[in-house]
């Protein structure tokens, strides 16, 4: 019989932490963490829990259900779970060995959506498993340290772990090299044609996949849609004209491919919080 009602072996480690007000202002902070060796009848089921969860399988297998999604958790797989929604996970092995960290912070939800842009979660096989396991164990060991430097260090290390998960997820995309080449073609096309009116069909004319598949792929790798990237590129070019030339707002609008001056001003203010002439004045 393991200890606690969760059926874990006595060699397991369970650490709780109460975040300070300072910790809550940082991108990430830990609320609980541990290393579990779970028996076959181990099970956790919650309607909600006010945190996100990193779960990494060292050995054995687990099973996760969240919403309508059911997932097998295997050796060297990591997963990020939004515990605010109903979820349950349990062991499929006589011993399921895993590391886990409950965390939150002002950047937690953002990073979750970067990893799972459609909110459909899936396990991520960690290619640098030894490095990842070492770093998560090191972070768990520091969970109850409370000085200012420790808070910042914990936040930074959590960000690093999530970065590894995100990088590994992108590397799992089939034929990533080809995908990056296709994206590079479109980025070059935008750079050379941003000053004229272009459509997604124009951008993808030399890409051997459907425009809908490409848009999903572009957003998965770049974090924004091709149209959003085009708008950002036009805004960046307009900034250069504003601070390096005496051209009028109307002239810059035309040079950067906006439909008209009003459209340019609307987009510029949305992206920068300023009107173009305010930006020019503040830059000078």
Description of the molecule:
The protein is an alpha+beta fold. Helix content is 44%, strand content 21%. A six-stranded antiparallel beta sheet has the order 1-2-9-4-7-10. Strand 5 and strand 6 (69-73) form a beta hairpin. The model has no long low-confidence stretch (mean pLDDT 90).
Keywords:
284 residues; alpha+beta; six-stranded antiparallel sheet; four-stranded antiparallel sheet; 10 helices; elongated
Quick gist of this model?
This protein is 44% helix and 21% strand. The protein is of the alpha+beta class and 284 residues long.
Strand-helix topology:
Layout: E1 13-16, E2 29-39, E3 43-46, E4 52-59, E5 62-66, E6 69-73, E7 77-82, E8 87-91, E9 95-104, H1 108-115, E10 124-125, H2 129-141, H3 148-171, H4 176-193, H5 200-203, H6 211-222, H7 226-244, H8 249-255, H9 261-272, H10 276-283
Antiparallel strand pairs: 1-2, 2-9, 3-8, 4-7, 4-9, 5-6, 5-8, 7-10
Helix pairs in contact: 2-3, 8-9
Major sheet details: 6 strands, antiparallel
Distance between the termini: 72 Å
Structural class comes to alpha+beta
Low-confidence stretches: none
Helix proportion: 40-55%
Number of strands: 10
Reading the helices and strands in chain order gives EEEEEEEEEHEHHHHHHHHH
